[in-house]
Amino acid sequence: MTKTTLTLAALAAGLAFAAPAVASDDYPSRTVEVIHHYGPGGGTDRFVRAVAEPFAEITGQQMVPVSIKGGGGIPAIAQWQRRPDDGYTLMAISPAQVISHVQGRIDMADFLPLARVQFDQALIWVPADSPFQTVQDMLDAAKANPGSVSVALSGAGGFDEVAVSLFGLEADVNFTTVPFSSSEMVSNTVGGQVDAMFEEFGPARGLWESGDLRPLVLFSETRLPELPDVPTAVEMGYDVTLGRWRAFAMQGGDDMDQAKHLYGVIEQAVEADSYKAFEAQSALQYRSELIGLDDFKAFIDTEIETYTSVMKQLGYID
């Protein structure tokens, strides 16, 4: 064998060694896990399972949610980052990760944004017998007596508080936000212990249908077909469209060909009848446009700018 032949053979061997461990055509060839920091049966867990059903039909492989609770999601991210960069461990992400990034607790540069699947729309709700017949009534009361209007939230210092506080900043009023667990938030609002609550349409729809809650304003660009008489914050002149989104991310070191291939699988999965049924049941079909990769990265960059601005004004960050 000549020196040239040896060199070419060595080069070929080196290229073969440097190639990704799994070609995108064969990916995924085993179970894909999705780590999240919420409890089993919660919204994020159900989201992953809803995508997992058609995912298995398309790929022949399972997608399995893995719940690692506590610590504001940091332990879940730490566990995810200890996994190999091989495309078989995803992270379910949401505004919670953007908030943690803005607070300096994590770095979103470590994430490869894969696909934003859901983009929910939230409203301000009041009990049926509330004196506030319109959102303007609520704003007028808050202006007349700053801090007198209480708004219940699910948890403290998270997406709910940022969204409600942004509405207050836009409308130049001060709300008193009161954090509860989800069940306590509902019972205290329906019972009149607080003036209002912040919640997405899907989880609150049953209480609206039963007449226990009334919606006052929607944080979105357009009105909901099911609530045609409820104004949006935008049409009232307040630029508040923040929504709770749910998405998948890969690790920053994962292979881009795998990412593109997996995005294509998710693109098919969210068009499946089973996923569409889940989406309609959860009232997620109105704004949940699928975006991925570069477009999703641009969306996250915009979210970071928005949350940074609001959280600075709230005094959460310097």
Automatic annotation (TrEMBL):
Keyword Glycoprotein among UniProt keywords: no
Cross-referenced CDD domains: PBP2_Bug_TTT
Signal peptide (UniProt feature, chain positions): 1-23
Pfam families, sorted: TctC
Keyword Signal set for record: yes
Highest taxon of source: Bacteria
Keywords associated with the record: Receptor, Signal
The family this protein is said to belong to: Belongs to the UPF0065 (bug) family.
PANTHER family referenced in this protein's UniProt entry, alphabetically: BLR1237 PROTEIN, TRICARBOXYLATE-BINDING PROTEIN
Protein's name according to its UniProt entry: Tripartite-type tricarboxylate transporter, receptor component TctC
Organism: Thalassobacter stenotrophicus DSM 16310
